[in-house]
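Internal ticket #5521
Category: modeling
Description: The requester needs a full-assembly model to guide mutagenesis choices. All entity lines are attached below as received. Residue total reported by intake: 396.
Assigned to: D.W.
Attached entities:
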Amino acid sequence: MRSAVSLLVATAAALTLGLWTAWLTVRSPTPIDAIALGAWQAWPNAGTADADPYSRARLARVGEIPLGSGEGLMLLAQDDDSGAPLSAACDYRIAGQTPPARLWTVALEDLNGQFVEGPSGVAALGSQNLLRSADGSFEITLSPKPQTGNWISTDGAGRFRVVIRLYDTSARTGTALTTLFMPSIIRDRCT
Amino acid sequence: MISLTLLKHWQPRLSLSTIATLVIGTALLAGAIHIVVILAVPYLAKADGWSRVAPHAGENQFAELPAGGSTADGVPGLDPLFVNGACRLNLGDAPAGITVDARDRFWSVALYNPQGTIVFSLNDRTAAQGRLDMIVVNSEQNQRLRDNPTVELELTIVVESPGDELIAILRLYAPTAATRADAQRILAQSECLPAPSVIPAPESG
């Protein structure tokens, strides 16, 4: 009787442990098979023949179509540089440079991967429409209220993620991935 | 954790080796369950990329994918500054031909398979003067193509797909309302058709 109970308890523990660790690895954004650059994460293997089972499981759950190697690379941040989750209650500055790419876009999306559409249109900017300083660096303000310079409205966004998509980029090749630099996400005022 | 505290409580009755066996057994079983779940997810997931895009993909033409919207019927992870189109290819009967003509903007084409893999992708830099002429074949059709080289195909990109079922995804950069309308026109004019004439009929026929 006692051994039967022990066995039952052990099986239940194994089930819990197995399912829990599996869930941890396929939730989005998963830390498995990812490269991390400051606040940013990317999954260069997602959707390729080299994808590991974790990437495949994550994509199957999230349902997004990854960018192909000839198209570009997506990078995602859901926290600021200090590690606090991004929220419309605060203002942020995205400042610095991106890896070389012919074109890149920055967009806000909700925690389900749907892009944010505020009262003033889609919360996104293309690299061609960006004001830059002389050295090529840029600064984008995320705020619910209109700002001068590059501004993306977080009005009505709640919790959100920032997605940068680099198109026609050399950043996808294995050696380049380790030397990538991404802009910082700095929190300003919070209301 | 629970099992450990229970086991500690019962320690006088359970030998150390029994406890060790139970702990190791629990860990092994947990590992096995973990692996099975991870491997099973792609087969069990109802809302993977393919099943989200397939209902919106056009037959013999590109159809625009719904931008955003509710999670239920939208395709997540699409760039809001792009016009995205999808077209279903079936290479079972004939190869498929894809023609895109778009200048002065970034665009890309990806071939996506039911397993969730991008089997091939390119962008407008690869296309000569913004014009793409692409033939998608399966391995058997590719073999026949190689046996009978046609002069016309020299300017055409030939892509071999491991499977017959594919969805071609065309993404066009369109950051403003004007460029969006233009991109939708390009999407409608882009061809995505069976191309039976590209390869000679099988000799048996």
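Resolution: model delivered.
Comment from assignee: The two ends of chain A are 60 Å apart (CA to CA).
Ticket closed.
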